[in-house]
Amino acid sequence: MTVSARFRLGLVQMRCAADPAENLATATAGIREAAARGARLVCLPELFRTRYFCQGEDAAVFDLAEPVPGPTTEALARLARELGIVVVGSVFERRAAGVYHNTAVILDADGALRGLYRKMHIPDDPLYYEKFYFTPGDLGFRAFDTAVGCIATLVCWDQWYPEGARLAALAGANVLLYPTAIGWHPAEKAEHGETQRAAWQTVQRAHAIANGVYVAAVNRVGHEGAADGGLEFWGASFACDPFGIVLAEASATREEVLVVECDLARQEDVRRSWPFLRDRRIDAYAGITKRLLDG
Predict the structure, then answer these.
(1) 139-172: per-residue pLDDT in tens?
(2) Cis (ω within 30 of 0) for the bond into 69?
(3) Active-site residue identified among 16, 54, 119, 130
(4) SS3 for 222?
(5) Which residues constitute the domain of residue 280?
(6) Residue 178, φ and ψ in degrees, nearest 5
(7) The whole model's pTM is what?
(8) Which of 81, 157, 186, 223, by CA, is between 20 and 30 Å from 229?
(9) Counted domains in the chain
């Protein structure tokens, strides 16, 4: 497979409506806009086909799940093939009766399903009751060879864990993509909002620096849930280079399509100057597999 050392990456920040067909249309329009602006790799937000249903626990929601391959992957595959681009989408995957995953799919520029990643870290917090819906991923942290080179995708809550980013980078990924659905509890926004969002971006920029890779996170925007509560998704989709420099950042409130350039020569230069992977003490890290080193 011939790949380019330089390519453009597109992120589709969007609102999610109650109608899955409307959301697919919004995502399709965003992908087409990114491709028209030169993007050869485009990523969508987490669970973009629906509103964020994990704010409560309702067994009827399992009816929204679909197999992989299935309707969403087939629609994205047709678009990837038509436009000649790589598309990363997010699917509520029905693997079997009673076994469901929060899954990212990688559709290559020929429309082939290059692979999938099942979200490994599953939160269980107020209005983020994901453990009710999702079985933890069992495929590990994978990297995939595509028409734009080797990429990896993790999902939302995975953003806070350096181990996942490290293992994806060690598998060969040059770009880490994080489909995301994260926001504020409105009552907390005034006091904690800016520090929460700053921490979210900071930890992902740190993944870029520590591993010498491009990192991109694509979020949704808008309020979902009860009018006197719910979640206000904070947008702020962004991409940064292998030394954590932010290349582009979206607003907190608007649907936007970001397009940035990735240059693997930049990655080479950063890794030569800051050889963190070279200097790792892999002989001394056995404790990382323990929950806690207590005594």
Answers:
(1) 999 999 999 999 999 999 999 999 999 999 999 9
(2) yes
(3) 119
(4) strand
(5) 7-289
(6) -125, 90
(7) 0.96
(8) 157
(9) 1
Q: Which of 172, 164, 236 is nearest to 207 (CA)?
A: 164
Q: Which of 46, 66, 130, 232 is catalytic?
A: 46
Stretch 204-223: mean pLDDT: 98
16 catalytically annotated = no
Active site residue 46: yes
Per-residue model confidence (pLDDT) at position 180 = 98
In the DSSP assignment, the letter for residue 250 is -
Q: Based on the number of CB atoms within 10 Å of its own CB, is 221 exposed (0-12), middle (13-18) or buried (19 or more)? A: buried
Catalytic residue among 54, 150, 156, 240: 156
Coil, strand or helix: which one is 121? coil
Q: What is the DSSP letter of 288?
A: G
Nearest to 258 by CA among 222, 291, 214: 214
**For 287, how many CA atoms within 13 A lie in the half-sphere containing its CB?**
6
The answer to whether residue 196 sits within a structural domain is yes
Could you confirm whether 119 is annotated as catalytic? Answer: yes
Three-state secondary structure call for residue 255? coil
d(CA 224, CA 15): 9
Is 119 within the bounds of a domain? yes
On whether residue 235 sits in a domain, the answer given is yes
Question: DSSP string covering 225-255, please?
Answer: S-TTSSEEEE---EEE-TT--EEEE--SSS-
| CATH assignment of the domain containing 116 | 3.60.110.10
The proportion of the chain whose per-residue pLDDT surpasses 70, expressed as a percent, equals: 99
Q: Is 108 helix (H, G, I), strand (E, B) or coil?
A: coil
pLDDT of residue 295: 76
Which of the four pLDDT bands, split at 50, 70 and 90, describes residue 3? low
